[in-house]
Design goal:
alpha+beta, two-stranded antiparallel sheet, two-stranded antiparallel ribbon
């Protein structure tokens, strides 16, 4: 087990214990709102493996629409709490390239293969660099910082990215799309 994996596992378990009471309350609210708790979407991880990325469900209906409770937990990024399960399972790291949907990934492209040579993360360099534009940025704009991280990232870089993410969250009030 690598130092990064030990760090991820220790932090995920510690945070999981701290947020468990909130997660239970949120799970009850989500259940009452949608009659389901978790939403799993496929994402491409390390070396091109596909995993299920967990979040609290925040939509219902056909076509799916954001519920009022879903809007609340999404605006506070509380819908992402179940991703701690992905970190504990080893699908995600705290820091790494953001996980992409399978239809966005080209496994024959050397840039993608470099990006997928490291475990994806909950936060990453592209998210910080693109800030509020992340969701509107092109795939190419997102991949450039991820490629740099895959080629040059280190434990020290991870700590810097985690620190910058925390500072951005505190400064902006982590409203979706702001960091």
């Amino acid at each position: 087990m690598t130092a990064k994996r030990i760090f991820d596992l220790t932090l995920a378990i510690a945070l999981g214990i701290v947020v468990l009471p909130f997660a239970v309350v949120i799970a009850i609210g989500v259940w009452l709102d949608t009659r389901s708790i978790l939403f799993a979407s496929p994402r491409v991880g390390l070396r091109g493996t596909v995993f299920q990325h967990y979040r609290f469900r925040k939509m219902k209906g056909e076509p799916p629409k954001l519920t009022r409770f879903g809007r609340l937990i999404s605006s506070l990024s509380l819908d992402d709490l179940p991703t701690l399960l992905n970190v504990i399972r080893g699908d995600l790291s705290f820091v790494g390239p953001r996980p992409f949907a399978p239809e966005e990934v080209n496994l024959h492209d050397p840039v993608w293969m470099a990006v997928l040579s490291v475990k994806p993360g909950l936060t990453g360099l592209s998210l910080l660099m693109l800030k509020g534009r992340y969701n509107q940025a092109t795939l190419s704009e997102k991949l450039q910082p991820e490629l740099w991280y895959a080629e040059h990232g280190s434990f020290r870089t991870d700590i810097q990215i985690l620190g910058a993410t925390l500072i951005a969250w505190l400064r902006m009030g982590h409203i979706k799309g702001k960091i």
